[in-house]
Design brief:
Blueprint (H helix, E strand, L loop, with lengths): L2 H41 L3 H16 L2 H12 L3 H11 L1 H13 L3 H9 L4 H34 L9 H9 L6 H30 L2 H4 L1
Protein name: ABC transporter permease
Membrane topology: Multi-pass membrane protein
Keywords: Membrane, Transmembrane, Transmembrane helix, Transport
């Protein structure tokens, strides 16, 4: 059976695996974005706090994915929980770092002007600082998503959902009839999903970033 015949005969299961892979990455990115932006908001005004936040999240990223998931299994069990926790932690660094950089890069004159017209600190943050910091934050989200697409495949080690199961099954049965087809289908599926997500972020950027900021 060649690769195209394999795809035709397994297309329904492949679509289910691709949906699960995309779903777990998307959900983890939502959580990582909320946490990362919140950490950035809390720490960007202080050099010490910002440095600490960046150091901690970068340290988390140095943990090997298999090791981290393996450490989580005795605590939360197999399946979705260790996958979600690991992916959320791995996704924090680019978002936290870019949120801090973006918020610190806002022109102080604009903040002073907003203060001068009577805006509260929260209103300035929501209406002035975060919109101006959004382009680098979105870049951080894009980088995190591309990272998590690949790391999510390793979640199959803990019976996690997604295309990684195909890759692991193929590797475990190397030499069998469809082993290479399984690895190739899982790998190409992840690449296609990563490209689709990145295209979606480009569209989101065009819709949410004003032309003046893009210029």
């Amino acid at each position: 059976m060649n690769f195209w015949e394999y795809l035709e005969s397994r297309h329904q299961q492949l679509l289910i695996d691709a949906y699960q892979h995309a779903s777990v990455v998307l959900q983890c990115m939502v959580v990582a974005t909320a946490l990362g932006v919140l950490i950035g908001i809390v720490t960007y005004r202080s050099e010490w706090a910002g440095g600490l936040a960046t150091t901690v999240t970068s340290t988390l990223l140095t943990f090997p994915a298999l090791a981290l998931i393996g450490l989580l299994i005795p605590i939360v069990g197999l399946g979705v929980p260790p996958t979600v926790i690991a992916l959320t932690l791995y996704g924090l660094l680019p978002i936290v770092r870019n949120a801090i950089v973006g918020l610190r890069g806002v022109d102080p004159a604009l903040v002073d002007a907003a203060t001068g017209i009577g805006m509260s600190r929260l209103t300035r943050l929501v209406r002035v600082e975060l919109p101006l910091a959004w382009p680098p934050i979105l870049t951080g989200i894009r980088v995190s998503t591309q990272m998590l697409m690949g790391i999510a495949a390793i979640a199959a080690f803990a019976s996690g959902p997604g295309l990684g199961n195909l890759i692991f099954r193929g590797i475990a049965s190397l030499g069998s009839r469809n082993a290479l087809n399984q690895v190739l289908a899982g790998t190409l599926g992840i690449v296609v999903l990563a490209l689709l997500f990145d295209a979606a972020y480009v569209l989101i950027g065009r819709l949410t970033i004003s032309r003046g900021i893009r210029a």
